[in-house]
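Task: complex structure prediction.
Instruction: return structure tokens for all chains below.
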Amino acid sequence: MTPDQVAPEQTDDSSVRVRIRGRELSLAMTEEQVIRFKALVQHIWHQPFTKRVWSELAFFLLGSVLAGVGLAFVAMTMFAGLVLAITFFGLALLAFSLRIGRGVGGLERNLARNMLGEVVEDPQPFTNRPGFLGWLQSCLRDRVAWRAVGYLALKVPWSILGVFVAFSVWWDAFACLVHPLFGQGGGGPSVWGPVQKFFPGGDLHGFDSTSFIHEAAIFIFGGILFFAAPWVMRGFVNVDRLLIRSLLGPDPMATRVRSLEQARTHTVDASAATLRRIERDLHDGTQAQLVALAMRLGMAKEKLENDPEQVDLDRVRELVDAAHRGAKEAITELRDIARGIHPPALDIGLEGALATLAARSAVPTELTVDIAARPTPAIEAIAYFCVAELLANVAQHSHASRATVSCAQHGTWLRLVVRDDGTGGAQLSTVGSSSSGLAGLVDRVHAVDGHLYLVSPPGGPTVVTVDLPLAS
Amino acid sequence: MTTDCSLRVAIAEDSAILRDGLVQLLVDRGFTVTGAVGDPSALRSSVAQNPPDVAVIDIRMPPTFTDEGLRLALDLRARYEGLGILLFSQYIETRYAADLLADDAAGIGYLLKDRVADVSDFVEALERVAVGGTALDPEVVTQLMGATRRTDSLSVLTAREREVLALMAEGRSNAAIANALVVSEGAVEKHVANIFAKLDLPVSEKDHRRVLAVLRFLES
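Output:
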């Protein structure tokens, strides 16, 4: 059924009726919408009394004070350092202020973690080079410290604004709510902050509250402010969260470098594993085959060297026959190993190579290929090996009767999907050697910043999706 | 052709093709094959049930395909006195040779698998090991001679003497050396005496003691 065939369920019971000046308005709401609406009202109603609001408030106050003190100290030492920068002492002072900046940044991060539950990963630890000059250089080039100082410089003005706005909202809510207690002409607190616009002079009596209706209006206004206050403050805190996430976390450049390093290690490991596999194949297969072949020929040769009258020709023929068979097997094995190193089918293009793979697969396989331009040789090779390995898995483990392979271009990505109707339950086992099956594929795919997704519920079907970037 | 039917051989080799080939070759040459198996534990039980004179052992075998064969060889040697061991490998690792020859060179062989292509040489080496001699692959000797720090001592030898030294290190008898170099046995004896005098080695009558002396010299 397509979505447009589904009519939204609508019953009279679930609609909300509102009576205004004698006329009944029926708001068409589905049951689900009603539930959501009730939940929203409840949420707003409870908000001012939740623990979250108070921890946010506490964080805002503590964090701001900390940032203010920290920035003042950093700014002072930094300014002095810059003034004295031509001297050695100035540079040392500058480095020192950056160390302080990093420390205050760390405190802010921990504060956010403990009070807001905002978990930001620790940045790269400070790496000190040997010697005083090394220390100086490390400090001045510490990107984490510079980012922390940047955070403090942004946070302090933001906090000042935030404290002013949030507190005036709370204060005004309080002033409005208590106003009726003082009655007409009575004292009571004055409003300040943005609300002053509505009450010129900051005195609620300027509103000319001569009647009950006006008192009620002021009270309701106070109530609205009271319930709005948490959201105003949360807005400020959320911007702060954003700053913390983007400036106090790990340096994105360093993170990228680390992930590239990891990918490189994987690539090196994967190629070492590939070489090992090729060596094993050669050792167990071709080399043994050739040794046996040489042995048979050696035996045959010795027999022929005997007295011509006594030569057991049948035995010699048998040996040569076995040697001949062995030679042919060795050739086949060598061809398979060479294909494992670089599939010659790839020379005619990915489509042709995949067609060969699909045709050779033990499980009947349907192939669709839709690519406009040829990917780079590296991507083609990885795509080929992925499909080869996945089809081998299908044949070995899935008990499937059919498989489909699709290879299509999606923007700058090449997407391979291998699907079978087998028993499922495949796993990306990360234990054991990384060259084993799917885990080995994941390493290969990650090495080029690609992704591999596996969906294989018990009972099947299994779908493996591989995304490879077309342009690096 | 050898008619010595009394030699009993056990084989541990995980490659079925090679194992079958070896069995064929040995039976053809009149040996008795007491067991042909594909992994270390199977050889252990085969040797226990039906003790051979010599065991031919592949170095790389299941389960880890590293040095199972070597460890099996050391184990069997410690357990069965007088059992000849012929290690059989596609590579020569000098360290393996050193492990194997740590205390004695009697009844030890270490050959490249390629050597079976020269059937007579291989059979001769196997027979030598079975009767307590030594058979080291020329490759092992080349590596040892190349790696030795005693190059200044070796340089006092003549070219012919160095050839004789290498063949001695392989474990060959004077007669076999004479045969290989196409000289008289007396000439070989003279060369050997010269070598021992020049390198200041203790003279020994037994071939495998001679091998050990030469190897100790090369390794030191």
